[in-house]
Specification:
The protein is built from 2 helices and 6 strands, in the order ββαββαββ. With 88 residues, it is an alpha+beta fold. A 6-stranded mixed β-sheet has the order 5-1-2-4-3-6. Strand 1 and strand 2 form a beta hairpin.
């Protein structure tokens, strides 16, 4: 079985699972699949941990791919919070 590594970005209050635009195409996702609590930039989406991250995990594992996770944690508030929001 194949495996990809996805990054969890976290600050003191929340976390987001990052998926690139290319990975979203590969796994059948778009930024419109995510709630207003996720963020995006020109390279991908930071899917919020409570609901949207599971959409990424499900899309990847439904293709038979295992996921390894790495975490990047910052003190204080993450700059991710300054990005544009997905969803409505």
């Amino acid at each position: 079985m194949n495996e990809i590594t996805l990054t969890i970005h976290a600050d003191a209050g929340h976390g987001w699972l990052y998926i690139t635009n290319e990975q979203m195409v590969e796994y059948g996702l778009s930024k419109d699949n995510f709630s207003k609590f996720s963020y995006y930039d020109d390279k991908g989406v930071y899917a919020e941990q409570d609901v949207d991250a599971s959409k990424v995990i499900d899309a990847v594992t439904n293709k038979g791919i295992n996921i390894a996770f790495e975490e990047i944690a910052v003190e204080g508030l993450s700059p991710i919070r300054e990005l544009k929001r997905t969803g409505s």
